[in-house]
């Protein structure tokens, strides 16, 4: 009978080692499915099925709750119990597992899942067989007793013929089964260890297999990039460490590498796209198409190839070919956006496929924020993607500014003292100018620290502070970004 298996990712440990499986094995597989549903991945994964099977038998899975913190505690414990390697420690029936799942609906964070453990302190119990020995040693007092027992047995058979037939059939079956098993044990071939020959040369592999009293067979030869020519790629049955026993005389099939296949790059430059791809695939290569514009090559034809014609490369490699998407670039006609608001003008020009740069000028005779001019005149035909610059009117706003002057600090003034120790404070004429306008002009003590004057202006302004008509400080500020100017 042909035996079929599912994915090795859902195997139970006893299934992976070829042992006895029952309903508890199915509960283990159910645990794997639940694990994957809640974490997005199976508990054990590896590059090969053999490695996955070994993990099922040897490693403990990472708990689902450590991967997905939203997994309820009860569900986490149910899954981990289902994934116990020893069947004794698992759920013993689907009914038992279903009971815990129902409890988890009412108490998701509960600690009710029974985790069984081995009792290392338990000792082997000795059965008292003294009574049985006494019964065996008890002598028969008379021959008549035996005769009486034999007579009772014959009498029982006469009185229970149907039951006697059933008992006889059972005895006959037991004798036949015992005989069959004995014959099988005598005729069944002994088990031997199958060697791992993957990576060996064909000759070495054959010698190893035949020395193990097994039959060597080459299933096929195939090209392989990783395995050198003449060496074993794989074997069947697959070698599994600690589980590599097979019947003496069994056949071990191997696949031998023919090395890496070579291919010759065809010349496809100037050919139509479909024809070029067909030639590449016939040469046992793969084509990667890169599309680009060209003013000299017709649309759909090969502009160039990255591997030169007749070059020797490995079969299965990917080669890049550049295909033309057209012989020209789309043309657009420029329209006038003068007088339009900046946002509308940009939207119009970008809608034509042009790239827009913006510069600013001030024209007090035009509305603020409208386009004054454009770098490409209306009606001109240009390539799509051409850069056009629009000049937008930006009139500076009138803003209020403040000039603060600390005369004492500005002059680094220290007053002298008279004979009585009183300070003699001198005065000076303070003048503040913003541009050509004087906004403050008074005589103040040289110890003055808090002169303040306000003004209205726009854009950049030059501010000067005079003390007795001598310039003591000059600053330029932009009223769009700062409105205060402090002289200390």
What are its keywords?
Transferase(Phosphotransferase), domain 1; 4-stranded antiparallel β-sheet; 488 residues; alpha+beta; elongated
Ordered list of secondary-structure elements with their pairings:
Layout: H1 13-16, H2 23-39, H3 49-58, H4 64-67, H5 73-82, H6 94-106, H7 130-137, H8 143-159, H9 161-187, E1 191-193, H10 202-211, E2 215-222, E3 232-236, E4 245-247, E5 251-257, E6 262-264, H11 273-282, E7 286-292, E8 302-305, E9 312-314, E10 318-324, E11 331-333, H12 342-351, E12 355-361, E13 371-374, E14 381-383, E15 387-393, E16 398-405, H13 407-411, E17 416-417, E18 423-424, E19 427-434, E20 437-445, E21 451-458, E22 460-467, E23 470-478, E24 484-487
Helix pairs in contact: 2-5, 5-6
In short:
This protein has 488 residues and is of the alpha+beta class. 30% of the residues lie in helices and 27% in strands.
Tertiary shape: elongated
Count up the helices. Answer: 13
CATH hierarchy class name of the largest domain: Mainly Alpha
Q: Approximately how much helix is present in the residues?
A: 25-40%
Distance between the termini: 103 Å
What's the number of domains? 6
Structural write-up:
The protein is α+β, with helices and mostly antiparallel strands. It folds into 6 domains: 8-106, Orthogonal Bundle (Transferase(Phosphotransferase), domain 1); 132-187, no CATH class; 191-257, Trypsin Inhibitor V, Chain A, CATH 3.30.10.20; 269-324, Trypsin Inhibitor V, Chain A (2-Layer Sandwich), CATH 3.30.10; 331-393, 2-Layer Sandwich (Trypsin Inhibitor V, Chain A), CATH 3.30.10.20; 398-487, Immunoglobulin-like, CATH 2.60.40.2560. The protein has 13 helices and 24 strands. The protein has helices at 13-16, 23-39, 49-58, 64-67, 73-82, 94-106, 130-137, 143-159, 161-187, 202-211, 273-282, 342-351, 407-411; strands spanning 191-193, 215-222, 232-236, 245-247, 251-257, 262-264, 286-292, 302-305, 312-314, 318-324, 331-333, 355-361, 371-374, 381-383, 387-393, 398-405, 416-417, 423-424, 427-434, 437-445, 451-458, 460-467, 470-478, 484-487. The strands form 9 sheets. It has a 4-stranded antiparallel sheet. The chain has a 3-stranded mixed sheet with strand order 2-5-3. Helix 2 packs across helix 5 (73-82) and helix 5 runs antiparallel to helix 6. The longest helix has 27 residues, at 161-187. Residues 1-5, 122-129, 131-136 and 138-149 have low confidence and may be disordered.
């Amino acid at each position: 009978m042909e035996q079929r298996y599912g994915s090795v990712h859902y195997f139970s440990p006893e299934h992976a080692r070829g042992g006895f499986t029952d309903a508890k094995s199915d509960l283990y597989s159910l645990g794997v499915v639940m694990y994957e549903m809640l974490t997005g991945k199976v508990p054990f994964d590896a590059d090969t099925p053999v490695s996955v099977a070994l993990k099922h038998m040897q490693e403990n899975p990472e708990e689902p709750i450590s991967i997905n913190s939203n997994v309820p505690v009860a569900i986490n414990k149910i899954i981990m119990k289902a994934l116990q390697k020893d069947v004794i420690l698992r759920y013993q029936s689907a009914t038992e597992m279903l009971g815990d799942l129902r409890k988890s609906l009412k108490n998701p964070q509960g600690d009710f899942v029974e985790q069984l453990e081995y009792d290392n302190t338990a000792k082997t119990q000795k059965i008292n067989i003294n009574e049985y020995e006494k019964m065996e040693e008890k002598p028969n007092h008379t021959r008549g007793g035996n005769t009486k027992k034999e007579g009772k047995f014959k009498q029982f058979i006469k009185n229970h013929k149907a039951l006697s037939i059933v008992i006889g059939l059972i005895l006959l079956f037991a004798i036949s089964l015992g005989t069959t098993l004995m014959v099988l044990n005598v005729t069944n071939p002994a088990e031997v260890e199958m060697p791992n020959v993957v990576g060996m040369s064909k000759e070495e592999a054959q010698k190893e297999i035949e020395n193990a009293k097994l039959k060597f067979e080459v299933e096929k030869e195939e090209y392989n990039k990783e395995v050198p020519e003449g060496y074993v790629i794989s074997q069947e049955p697959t070698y599994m460490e600690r589980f590599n026993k097979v019947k003496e005389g069994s056949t071990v099939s191997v696949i031998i590498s023919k090395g890496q296949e070579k291919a010759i790059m065809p010349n496809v430059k100037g050919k139509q796209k479909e024809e070029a791809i067909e030639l590449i695939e016939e040469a046992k290569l793969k084509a990667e198409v890169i599309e680009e514009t060209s003013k000299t090559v017709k649309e759909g034809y090969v502009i160039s190839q990255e591997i030169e014609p007749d070059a020797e490369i490995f079969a299965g490699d990917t080669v890049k070919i550049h295909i033309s998407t057209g012989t020209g670039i789309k043309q657009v006609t420029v329209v006038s956006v003068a007088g339009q608001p900046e946002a509308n003008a940009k939207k119009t020009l970008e809608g034509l496929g042009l790239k827009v740069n913006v510069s600013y000028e001030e024209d007090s005779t035009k509305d603020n924020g409208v386009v004054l001019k454009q770098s490409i005149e209306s009606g001109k035909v240009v390539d799509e993607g051409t850069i056009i610059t629009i000049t937008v009117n930006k009139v500076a706003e009138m803003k209020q500014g403040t000039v603060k002057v600390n005369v004492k600090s500005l002059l680094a003034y220290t007053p002298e003292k008279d004979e009585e120790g009183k300070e003699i404070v001198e005065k000076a004429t303070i003048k503040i100018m913003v541009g050509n306008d004087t906004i403050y002009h008074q005589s103040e003590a040289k110890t003055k620290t808090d002169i303040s004057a306000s003004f209205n202006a726009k854009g950049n302004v030059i501010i000067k502070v005079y003390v007795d008509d001598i310039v003591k400080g000059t600053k330029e500020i932009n009223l769009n970004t700062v409105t205060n100017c402090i002289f200390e």
